[in-house]
User: What shape does this take?
Amino acid sequence: MTAKPVLNRAHFHTSVAQLRDLPYSRAEIAFAGRSNAGKSSAINLLTRINRLAYTSKTPGRTQLINFFTVDADTYLVDLPGYGYAKVPPAVKAKWEGLLSRYLQERDALAGMVLIMDARHPLTPLDRQMLDWFTPTGKPVHILLSKADKLSNGERALTLRRVKQELSALPHVSVQLFSSLSRLGAEDATTLLENWFSQAQQGEPEPAEAQNASSTQKESPDHTKDRG
Ligand SMILES: Nc1nc2c(ncn2[C@@H]2O[C@H](COP(=O)(O)OP(=O)(O)OP(=O)(O)O)[C@@H](O)[C@H]2O)c(=O)[nH]1
Ligand SMILES: [Mg+2]
Assistant: This one.
């Protein structure tokens, strides 16, 4: 492994629809958030690769868990968006099972980036994500996205309110972000790199890591289905 994952060398690895297909991973950072909040756009901006994750004006575009390699067995993960109106109950139940188990049980998950549209942050489902993930003790970083759509005053107010609302939760940080104006991109990149570095420092000795990787199952290639 290189000393530090290099976000701008990211490339698509695989898409999975169920937990048993998750790839072997040393460390990964997941991007969660409502449909249309700007998860895929944030991944593209932070990796500086324009069309790495597919973005769309149609909510619900990302329906699979998409893995992007940033280093050997080290990934950025684009999760399916939630809160998409008119989703059939069966699809919603499947999503809830998949996401809650992924967030609660995935050992390699170093932290969650939670993307919330700065114009309507902390929806009930955003709070659900925090409820699922914060008990793991792993860090959450919130990007208040589309901040370009707010005035300076509204930005400051929103940031203060969200920080205040979450002040009781440890390991949760918040910043303003815009994939359009690049506001906050440097801070977010630095944070991701730090999470990866910390995850690497905490990982097992090389011999053990090698054993673990030899149990890796070949992942099916879903490249054409990713969305
Ligand atoms: N103005 C503005 N538009 C943005 C920003 N980020 C994303 N968008 C737009 O919002 C729409 C949705 O962005 P995506 O990145 O596809 O959102 P997503 O969260 O990945 O959506 P799903 O995959 O459906 O869950 C697209 O039309 C983007 O161009 C931003 O920072 N500012
Ligand atoms: Mg998406």
Q: What stands out?
A: The longest strand covers residues 109-117. The chain is about 35% helix and 20% strand.
